């Protein structure tokens, strides 16, 4: 038969792809907003991320537009937008005080978000590993931007998208 692919298998694959894309949206948002500090039993929400972003907006002098770009998974280009990301990442320990990626915290997030799905966890781990290896500038705002850029590139390299559906 030319089309013997079972509908159950097709539906299963579609559900997996949908979950993977949604999880990658969350991981990117988590990196961008450093939500890893939420306790494992707490629900990770976009609302919480938005609250933290607005707190950091006040601390860094970022604009509402900078926050809106962040929430839409768009790269920030102004210094204030980069500092917004640095602030958020530090608040949630994704970035340490030296401006380096905290791989352990990032991998904890991966484990929580992948809900023990080995395939999804492996994809997330690859992204974390790749971005942990990059050289970043000493300026913490620029370092946060470098990590964000790496995450975006890796997600696209894996054939995934962060666009809202």
Automatic annotation (TrEMBL):
It is found in: Secreted. This is Odorant-binding protein 19d. The gene is Dwil\Obp19d. GO terms for molecular function: odorant binding. InterPro entries: PBP/GOBP, PBP_GOBP_sf. GO terms for biological process: sensory perception of smell. The chain crosses the membrane at residues 14-38. One of its GO terms (cellular component) is extracellular space. Keywords: Disulfide bond, Membrane, Secreted, Signal, Transmembrane, Transmembrane helix.
